[in-house]
Structures are given as structure tokens and as C-alpha cells.
Design a protein that fits this description.
With 214 residues, the chain is an alpha+beta fold. Helix content is 50%, strand content 13%. The strands form 4 sheets. Strands 7-8-9 form a 3-stranded antiparallel sheet, with no helix packed on it. The protein has a two-stranded antiparallel sheet with strand order 1-6. It has a two-stranded antiparallel sheet with strand order 2-3. The longest helix has 17 residues.
Length: 214
């Protein structure tokens, strides 16, 4: 499942509501400073919202979602469901047949209570899956043998970009992207990274990793 416009849905009012609920009292000056440091206006005179890309936003959003996460965890534990959340991506998994179909209504109800209906579900991204289909979570593919994979399309892209690098056909921006892809691949699926080393030469993979923008 996915939240709709997650960071822009978080207001200073919601932040201070959770802050008070957690038992923390701050001065008016501190409240004003936090409000202006942590939130921004998308357009002139628009309401303040949590900024996408600010280094503080993930911390603040996790703080705001703390009570939601705790309630979801307790509900899921009772039903034999594993619950995880990464930013606005929610994942529920279980070996119990049909138990997950009730989750969207439960999530909507808890969001209404815990976030004053400010955070809502992006229903177009709610997906049910099983071992009969490819299962993708935050860009990672879960294979039926219990392993992680970066996916076939991304493998093809990385291999193609390595070839173009060796032919000096990549600009600096694409080389930096390739560096990120290679680090990502070696972390998620080291077998693929080792195949690339055998195919293109380990020294060439190291050349890519050590490339510096001039």
C-alpha cells in the first residue's frame, strides 16, 4: 500500500499534536523555530507542509507515524501478519489465506484516528500479490526461493550502461547513476554483481566505482 502525497500531507499542526501526545512541552519560541525550519510553503500563501527532500523530513514523518505504526503492529501481530513501512510504502505479508483483504479498511480507519485524516491511502497503488506473481517491494523483487533480486529490467539496464561506459558513450551524469546502480546491485544481489565482474572484468567495475566528476 502507499500513502497519497505523504510529506506534503504532514502539517505543523499534526506535528505539534503528536508532540503534545508524546508528553513533550516546548516554548512558543521553539515551536515557531521548528515550524519554520521543518516546514515550507509550496507556493506563496499556501499552507506549510513537510518538505520533500529535506534531510529532516524522514525523521519528522517517522515521529508523526509512531502511534500509527504501533497500532498497526499490534493489530497485525494478532492476525499473524508482518507489517513494515518505509516512508510512504506499507507492506503486509502473511501465510494465512485471505487474511490480508481486510487490511486496507483497517489502515484507513487508523489513519483517520491517528493523523486527523490528513494522511490518506493512494488506492491506485494498493496491490495484492502472491508467489504466483512477481512480488515487488520498494523496488526490490522477492523471488519464490526466498531471495532478493533487483529485477530483470534493471539488470539489463546496468549491463547496457557498463558496456556504454567501456565504449565511452556515457556522460558524467549517467556514470554517476551507474555508480549508484552498481552499489545497489552489489548490496541486493551480489551474484549479479559478480556476473558483471566476470563479463566485463573486475578492474572495469572498479574503474566505474572510482570515477570522479571533474
Amino acid at each position: 500500500m502507499d500513502f497519497e502525497n505523504f510529506f506534503p500531507s504532514v502539517s505543523p499542526e499534526l506535528f505539534f499534536t503528536i508532540l503534545r501526545r508524546s508528553g513533550r512541552e516546548i516554548s512558543e519560541l521553539d515551536a515557531s523555530l521548528l515550524k519554520n525550519f521543518l516546514f515550507w510553503m509550496a507556493t506563496r500563501n499556501s499552507p506549510l507542509r513537510l518538505s520533500i527532500g529535506a534531510p529532516s523530513s524522514p525523521l519528522i514523518s517517522n515521529f508523526i507515524m509512531f502511534y500509527f505504526d504501533e497500532e498497526m503492529r499490534l493489530i497485525c501481530d494478532k492476525r499473524g501478519i508482518k507489517y513494515t513501512r518505509y516512508a510512504d510504502d506499507l507492506t503486509f505479508s502473511s501465510n494465512i489465506k485471505n487474511v490480508l483483504f481486510e487490511i486496507p479498511k483497517i489502515v484507513a480507519s487508523i489513519l483517520e484516528n491517528e493523523t486527523q485524516s490528513q494522511i490518506k491511502i493512494n488506492h491506485s497503488k494498493t496491490v495484492f500479490s502472491s508467489k504466483a506473481h512477481n512480488r515487488h517491494i520498494t523496488g526490490v523483487t522477492l523471488t519464490n526461493d526466498g531471495k532478493l533480486s533487483i529485477g530483470r529490467e534493471r539488470k539489463r539496464l546496468i549491463s547496457s550502461m557498463i558496456h556504454k561506459f567501456l565504449c565511452q558513450l556515457l556522460d558524467q551524469d549517467d556514470i554517476l547513476k551507474l555508480q549508484g546502480f552498481i552499489s545497489y546491485a552489489s548490496y541486493i544481489e551480489d551474484d549479479f554483481y559478480q556476473r558483471m565482474c566476470r563479463k566485463y572484468g573486475e578492474e572495469n567495475l572498479l574503474r566505474i566505482k572510482r570515477f570522479k566528476v571533474e
